[in-house]
Amino acid sequence: MQTQTLSVSRGSQFATDVCAGLSKPGQKELPSKYLYDEVGSALFEVICALPEYGLTRAEERLLQQHAREIVDQLPRPVVVAELGSGTGRKTRLLLEALSRWQSTWYHPIEISPTALAVCRRELRDINSISIVGFEREYLDGLREVAARRVNSEHLLVLFLGSTLGNFDGSAGAEFLSELRQILQAGDSLLLGTDLRKPLDVLVPAYDDALGVTAAFNRNLLARVNSELGGDFNLSQFAHQAVFNPRTHSIEMHLRSRISQTVNIAEAGLAFRFGEDETIWTESSHKYSREELYQLAQLTGFRCQSQWIDSEWSFAENLWIAE
Ligand code: AVI
User: Cβ atoms within 10 A of the Cβ of 58, count?
Assistant: First the structure.
């Protein structure tokens, strides 16, 4: 078994993105990818265990029930690349199923070195699995994995947890099209997607009674304070989860309780907030099954199989690159 990480430095993109997002005319925003520092990732793990948030348990159930069936549909030999590494719990189910019939290279791709380290630690005991992680943006990492494969190998890309739903507007389809360009015909994508559901189930999943999602959201401001010398008063920003019926997304916002000015020392800038003005921090799109079939076609894939959880409306999709 082999484990290793290949890393690259990223500069202060955070400062640039924060200033651009808070300077936007109209709706202020902060990119959701910055929710996941060490504290944010730990809070997200807690969210996954909350009774209101059924998404992660639904996907785990699907993989527990169907991992063998999924891997039995794959061409062999196969190399596995995962976009985002998570805790490795769901991936373990697939890798264990795969290790029944081949030794497998597994490449988690992730910008957080901490998450990569957790993933390596959690999965290193699986027989016949060699782990080489890439500390990269998703598609950059995938390009490297694709460049290293030898002729007969197929790629299986895992994009689990409905992370695709966090891409705004058409960005999800554009991302999948770019991903498809990196693959060869016959390669596979296992895509986890949360489906539409009633609002009385959906809204509490993003505004739980314990306030964990609120803390997850506000941590973004704490991060601006600690990393960029900001002076956000966290108690003056309220967490909001709002369903947007036009985009079929649940949106997280941080609403300024008062009119206030926030300084960010690193940028040498001050930002004004009116009372009730919000910062949009995340969208989580909820798919219909038909939309998923169309999305596969539009982005150069064929939907080979789809498994739906019976308790929480969630779909695991196996797509083949055409
Ligand atoms: C990671 N992603 C799929 C989660 C979601 O449900 O959109 C992030 C999240 N935001 C609030 N709760 C969970």
Answer: 23
